[in-house]
Specification:
Structural class: mainly alpha
Number of helices: 6
Distance between the termini: 90 Å
Oligomer: single chain
Strand content: under 5%
Number of strands: 0
Shape: elongated
Radius of gyration: 30 Å
Helix content: over 70%
Length: 152
């Protein structure tokens, strides 16, 4: 008959049943063990300790811009990286670095004036447009009016 491929002898059925029971038992054990692990009194303390150590490691890579020397180095680095990305033809990253240069400088108007002097007009306009879009999105997030930057 055409359905002979679906017929199984007793051994195949027994093997499949045993495999099904073993698989179910394994999954059940995993669920039981996970519950037992999570309900252990030390579990939360260990998880928090691990998270704090991870956060400490991550925070070491953050630059402290309150220090004037570090801030100046960061700003100079952003300007250099932006120029390097321009040379490489990576416009998006270059604009991002120029925006960081403006945002983190102590004098955004002066930084914009510097960019206006050193950048070709098309690239300068892209930086200003992107900067304006970021300012508008931050304004919407904060629900406040930010200070507009004027270009001389």
């Amino acid at each position: 008959s055409p359905h002979t491929c679906w017929k199984m002898d007793g051994k195949k059925v027994a093997v499949l049943c045993v495999l099904g029971v073993l698989g179910t038992a394994f999954i059940g054990y995993c669920v039981y063990f996970d519950r037992k692990r999570r309900s252990h009194p030390e579990y939360k303390r260990r998880v928090l300790k691990r998270r704090k150590s991870t956060m400490r490691q991550d925070s070491k890579s953050v630059v402290d811009l309150r220090d004037p020397k570090i801030r100046e180095q960061f700003i100079a680095s952003e300007f250099e990286q932006a120029n390097q990305k321009l040379i490489e033809g990576n416009m998006e990253e270059a604009i991002g670095h120029f925006i960081n240069f403006v945002q983190f400088s102590g004098n955004p108007k002066g930084a914009i004036h510097t960019l206006q002097q050193v950048l070709p007009p098309a690239i300068f306009n892209l930086v200003i447009q992107t900067f304006a879009m970021i300012a508008k999105s931050k304004e919407k997030e904060n629900g406040s009016i930010s200070e507009a930057v004027e270009i001389d």
